């Protein structure tokens, strides 16, 4: 057997081993997520998960009718999983830890006569019951905030079942110059609003 053939065989074995390691790491990560994050992953392509797009309407403390759209992201995308398996992983510039089995992040858009409000969201499902959740809002870009306005602060007591997601929203008021304002004598400033969102197909 010539040196050239031996070298080709050696390279072939190395490639096969490398591919085998990649496959093992990729599918170990995937099956771990099926077990640890049932709210985000399923073998059933038609499963109704928490991740995805949601939409609903609510009335803010000022009585302004608003439409809210949520996008809850996969904790780890297929591309990120492949990069991690090939040792070229780069952490997404998201809001939660990729190792946090309960944490999630995403985006929210609120439309009304006042304008378009854009937020990043970050939160978690409850360990005892993955169908209960909470999360926070923060402006996507400070300079593009819609002011003056009752802006979104938190979503608590969240419950999702199949194609419905129910949240209790709290707000903070910001004046035209961006400064926050509170008036304990005005019930609007302590008002909580319950909103029901429905799953949106993409």
Descriptive overview:
There is one protein chain. This protein has helices spanning about 5-35, 80-85; strands at about 50-60, 65-70, 105-110, 115-125, 130-140, 150-160, 165-175, 180, 195-200. With about 200 residues, it is an alpha+beta fold. Strand 4 (about 115-125) and strand 5 (about 130-140) form a beta hairpin. Helix 1 (about 5-35) packs across helix 2 (about 80-85).
Shape: elongated
On the 0 to 100 scale, the average pLDDT is: 83
| Assigned CATH superfamily of the domain at 52-76 and 100-200 | Quinohemoprotein amine dehydrogenase alpha subunit, domain 2
Distance between the terminal alpha carbons, to the nearest Å? 58 Å
Largest sheet: 8 strands, antiparallel, barrel
Index terms:
9 strands, 202 residues, eight-stranded antiparallel beta barrel, alpha+beta, Lipocalin, elongated
Brief write-up:
The protein is of the alpha+beta class and about 200 residues long. Helices cover about 20% and strands about 40% of the residues.
